[in-house]
Amino acid sequence: xxxxxxxxxxxxxxxxxxxxxxxxxxxxxxxxxxxxxxxxxxxxxxxxxxxxxxxxxxxxxxxxxxxxxxxxxxxxxxxxxxxxxxxxxxxxxxxxxxxxxxxxxxxxxxxxxxxxxxxxxxxxxxxxxxxxxxxxxxxxxxxxxxxxxxxxxxxxxxxxxxxxxxxxxxxxxxxxxxxxxxxxxxxxxxxxxxxxxxxxxxxxxxxxxxxxxxxxxxxxxxxxxxxxxxxxxxxxxxxxxxxxxxxxxxxxxxxxxxxxxxxxxxxxxxxx
Length: 272
Description:
By secondary structure, the protein is of the alpha/beta class. The chain has two domains: 2-97 and 218-271, 3-Layer(aba) Sandwich (Rossmann fold); 98-215, Rossmann fold, CATH 3.40.50. The protein is 44% helix and 18% strand. The chain has helices at residues 13-26, 53-71, 81-84, 97-108, 121-126, 128-135, 151-157, 162-177, 199-206, 215-218, 220-223, 245-255, 260-267, and strands at 2-7, 32-38, 75-78, 95-96, 114-119, 143-147, 186-191, 211-213, 233-239, 270-271. Strand 3 (75-78), helix 3 and strand 4 (95-96) form a beta-alpha-beta unit. The mean pLDDT is 95.
């Protein structure tokens, strides 16, 4: 089985890592090939920098058609909230991580809890998470969306974490100030794949009573329904630009314990 996983940067590489670990430890019904394809056109020009939704859709649709032709995978999983919001308007069938995150968030919400959704500006502007929650009967007053501009880049560049910790605390404080009741239970969703790398920082900033959901950890359930006898898994990493060394160092730090094989693939990336 060949699964292509993509993101607008490298945050979704954690989904590859969790998937590799699952097949290596739990097995699957057949050998698995995991291909990560970075959808960003350039290191300094990503989807959140594009001038309009139309440009984002056109760029992503072209990318999906190109990788479909090149890699001929059995499944495409979009491990990116920014890009998942565009899936209804592209021509290539794919699963998206927003479905994973919204389901996990909804399941975790008690009747009196407030959902805090931390995301990029593009994901927040799309209103997809709140809309899906409202469609399932969650009162809009119990939903707080918080964009965190620049946070994904900071996480990628800040292995030590001091700048990231300060930024996360700032965005958490802003989000909590929007809550209708300050003492309500909190269920926070990290609706950007980079944010999961610093789940512990979000948990510390939100407090001991908050529940923090990282959809990256749950994506395995959307890729594999069961284990099996085959533990054969291959990982490859493709990108349009050279991954900066600071980003490689940070990802190595975040992912080495989960999946050394994924880190090796990232370190040996291929340009396409």
